[in-house]
Write a structure and sequence with these properties.
The chain is of the alpha/beta class. 37% of the residues lie in helices and 26% in strands. It binds S-adenosylmethionine (SAM). S-adenosylmethionine binds at residues 88-90, 119-121, 124-125, 139-142, 145, 167-169, 190-192, 218. Belongs to the class I-like SAM-binding methyltransferase superfamily. RNA M5U methyltransferase family.
Amino acid sequence: MARLSSTGDMMVMVQMTTLSEEDRQKFSKLVVDAMVAAEIGVVSVYLQCNDEVCDAARPSAVLHHVHGQPQLRMPLLGLDFLIGPLSFYQANSRTCELLYSRALDWLAPSEASVVLDVCCGVGTIGLCASKRCRQVIGLELIPEAVESAKANAALNGVKNTDWKVGRAEEVLAGVLEALDPSLEVCAVVDPPRPGLHATVLGALRSCPQLSRIVYVSCNPESLVEDIVKLTLPRESDEDPFVPVRAVACDMFPHTMHCEMILLLERRSKVADPRPKGAALAEEAQAAKEARKVAFEASGAGDEACDAGAGA
Ligand SMILES: C[S@@+](CC[C@H](N)C(=O)[O-])C[C@H]1O[C@@H](n2cnc3c(N)ncnc32)[C@H](O)[C@@H]1O
């Protein structure tokens, strides 16, 4: 892994199989000497022991800091972020600024609102939002990233943030329950490729204080699945989200991949652009589909078929 800051500084993490102490020292010297001699701005080098057959090391993989700074400084939208080798950071710093600016413009938090930063990494989006809102609450799986988020808040003099380490699917419901019900809430979600856990989608959808979601996604397939779960009308709740606008963001130029930003708002807050008759017909059809899906999921359909077969 090589990570380049806009300052020209670079962090490098080299994976190797587990070596004896003596061999590791020799290998480390070769790597560091070569990188320093190359004069390409390497200011931090790590070795990671990975005995797997793929490059995704286990979270418990042993890490050795063998040269320079333990963290890399990444300036972003007027703030500074210190990041370690295990934390996620957007691959393209220039496009990342465009993406976060657009995401926060669409989120448009009021000064009185709480911003949830779900899958917050080192806290970049939440910290960039912190000046515009009352409080930021970040949720993140990787402990190193949460420690960086806390350190980055302190580094930038930001005091209105709270960071929770753990799986969003285990932490979010408790966070929402603990919120003062009079507060307005909006959320940025930026999950990994598989998208959000169903529990997270359910908690977001059923939180009445939550008026707006900005979904940042690196995988259009899981994005679509999650948007359907947030927006499909159901008989049990009156105010689902509706997709309002979306834009693709070329985070990975010269590849087939792109990042998406999608804004969702509560249906009651959005004027329906469809002609009235068409809207009613579409909703009746959607409700019919939803009833069919619920009926099939309950297994009642199978029982009916079985009964029919036996008759
Ligand atoms: C695409 S990255 C986005 C990070 C951050 N928002 C940013 O822009 O730098 C997704 C983040 O979600 C975290 N993550 C993955 N699964 C998670 C889960 N179940 N609950 C909370 N965070 C999770 C990853 O560790 C990673 O930091």
